[in-house]
Amino acid sequence: MSLLDKFDVVEQLMSGLESVGKNPTSVVFDTINSATEAVVEGRTTILAGTNNYLGLTFDQDCISAGVTALRTQGTGTTGSRMANGSYASHIKLETELADFFQCENAMVFSTGYAANLGVLTAVLGKGDAVLLDADAHASLYDGCRMSGADIFRFKHNDTHSLERRLQRLKERASRCLIIVEGMYSVLGDRAPLAEIVELKNRFGASLLVDEAHSLGVFGERGCGVAELDGVLDEVDFIVGTFSKSLGAMGGFCASRHDVLGLFRYVSRPFMFTASPSPAVMATTREALAQLRNRPGLRDALWSNANQLYSGLQKLGFELGPEISPVVAVRCKDRESALFNWDKLLEAGVYVNMMLPPATPGGASFLRCSISAAHTQEQINTIIEKFAGL
Ligand SMILES: Cc1ncc(COP(=O)(O)O)c(C=O)c1O
């Protein structure tokens, strides 16, 4: 046995993916034409799996802001904020995020993944308990594991399961953190946040909500599911990413707790990595301003989401439980998911392939994520190509 033998399994898995057609993890977008269109293997392809919910990646004002920052502040920060100091744009974005979420504190991280690791390792330690939704993102799991806290999973979106877990924790419940996502990324279903907040308050626990997929998508002002459900000021920590609706890169935490300011001195995923580049801060700040000032983007997104969901439903596909910008089409099995994914790509539609173990219930899905930038014609083409499967 050698150290590297474990990679035999990975190799087998990858060649298994290629048995039906193209390996979904090896797609290359040769040219990106717009937020919703690219060229893949010489074919013009509709992008229906990008998380580019507001379609801002090609917004001219975002691009101009990035270009100006590149020219005036350089290509990168070349170090962490602890060691090399902050750029004014890091601080400005943190102020703007705190204002947006109507809380006192916000902190920017280099990615959404780092935000989850950074917040969870700061908040939690040995002896603390975490109640984690079973379908939570890998970055939430990893952050919990890194923290050394005791991890207890509850059934996905099941408040009875959460309540039983809280009861079993007894006096430890008041030192426990409940972790959920606003909207879940595979099926597009939402956490029942009002009920979860009621439980959190009853047991004296704390609550972290990851709004990675709901920022800019839900709520009157686009804050996410916590705003939609009227519990924004009840959530202890809101985390999220700039890499989806804001079309950039980076992550954040917003909180009404002043201790967030102290995370800067204890959070290793914040302290020991380079801070986001000036261009990334500039495009993110402009995108956040657009998210706030252009509610029409959200209207366009929802109109497209409705069109796709009802179109695919009429064709008889089994979809996620609620209409959302994530439309997941359940496949019979892994092989049919691989086969149909490949067929869609050949027909000029790129969607995400979702296979177990990264999926709820071990099922296989073709996952579409819809953008405000899709045209009605593009949505009709996506529906037409699904009809041809
Ligand atoms: C729920 C959730 N949290 C965090 C992340 C990580 O964000 P990032 O890609 O910006 O690191 C993702 C990314 O897919 C996500 O879906």
Count of strand segments: 14
Question: What is the overall silhouette?
Answer: globular
Helical stretch tally:
14
Any idea what the CATH architecture of the largest domain is? 3-Layer(aba) Sandwich
Helicity level: 40-55%
Give the termini separation: 44 Å
CATH topology of the largest domain: Aspartate Aminotransferase, domain 2
- CATH 4th-level superfamily of the largest domain: Type I PLP-dependent aspartate aminotransferase-like (Major domain)
Structural class: alpha/beta
What strand order characterises the main sheet? Answer: 4-10-9-8-7-5-6
Domain count: the total is 2
**Overall pLDDT level:** 96
User: Compute the gyration radius: what is it?
Assistant: 21 Å
Hetero groups: pyridoxal-5'-phosphate
CATH class annotation of the largest domain: Alpha Beta
Which spans have pLDDT < 50 for at least 5 consecutive residues?
none
Share of residues in strands: 15-25%
